[in-house]
Amino acid sequence: MQIRVLGSAAGGGFPQWNCRCPVCDLAWNNDPRVLPRTQSSLAISADGQHWLLLNASPDLRQQILSNTALQPKQSGRGSPIFGVWLTNGDIDHVAGLLDLRERHSFTIFARQGILDEMASNAVFSAVAGDIVPRQAVPDNVEIMAGHGLNVTSFAVPGKVPLYREGASVITGEIGEMTSGLAIRHGAARVLYIPGCAHVTPEIKARVAGADVLFFDGTTFTDDEMLRLGLSDKTAQRMGHIAMSGPQGSMAALADITGPRKIFIHINNTNAALIDGSTERQAIAAAGWDIAYDGMEIVL
Question: What Å distances lie between residue 215 and 137, 169, 203, 250, CA to CA?
């Protein structure tokens, strides 16, 4: 199984287009300690020719231009992309579907709640349903996605997309809008959980049996955005677990030593993006890697 990180940043990418926070400032100044990153997505293949995308970021066209494996191979129209599997309805994970509206046949896989959100927005009708079927997937059932890849969707704690928030927002609930994926080919198994509010016993059990874990790395501390004066929201309020702290993901998954653990969906404010920073050193000491665009793993 081949895994390619198409994008590793959270919504807005890195550097974010309108941000001069301390970390983005390094990127705008071309500091070699930081690498620009597009918004998070993976591509996975069992045969190296047919690719399943995990989420479709707004940067998808740029990501295709940067990955020859995803580019058309024959004259006329066509693509090695045979499917897109969505983990939630967030803009940074679904907007890229609009780049795939040029009459190419592929399947959109998602939980019913996510498909309902898409159906309620007429702009997604541009991704023509007559040639792009939308397949609702149940939780905890392995689905043959095609071309040797088997995928299981499972619920994780999160929240509704930002555009569906009302006056009162419940975070950390397990509902129809946030999921993780277990992707299997033969004995090889990858877990992809780009958004998660806290680590449950079920998540720990799934992680223990994986070869590779890609996990929510949005912020290093829960109050990161508040301290920088950039937002009035904590990571928890945004539906994400911080990397550090007694309630953070590194602590919650410290006793899981089997899989290779990689943070993805990293916010532009997160100092773990800086090579050599104390935050990066803490992550490495805890046995974690940081995803970067173009990262490849073969199992």
Answer: 21, 23, 11, 10
Tokens of 106: 């592929």
Q: Which CATH number characterizes residue 278's domain?
A: 3.60.15.10
What does the pLDDT look like over 97-152, one tens digit per residue? 999 998 899 999 999 999 999 999 999 999 988 999 999 999 999 999 999 999 99
Distance CA 20, CA 192 (A): 30
What is the residue range of 276's domain?
Answer: 2-298
Residues 56 and 96: beta-carbon distance below 8 Å: yes
Instruction: Quote the tokens at residue 160.
Output: 């509704």
How confident is the model at residue 166, as a pLDDT? Answer: 60
Q: How far apart are CA 11 and CA 27, in angstroms?
A: 16
The structural domain count of the chain equals 1
Q: List % helix, strand, coil for the chain (3-state, nearest 5).
A: 25, 25, 50
Per-residue pLDDT at 164: 64
Distances (CA, A) of 208 to 55, 178, 202: 24, 21, 10
Q: b/e map of 198-213 (b: 16 or more CB within 10 Å)?
A: bbbeebeebbeebbbb
Q: pLDDT under 70 in the chain at which residues? A: 160, 162, 164-173
- 182 and 151 in contact (C-beta within 8 Å)? yes
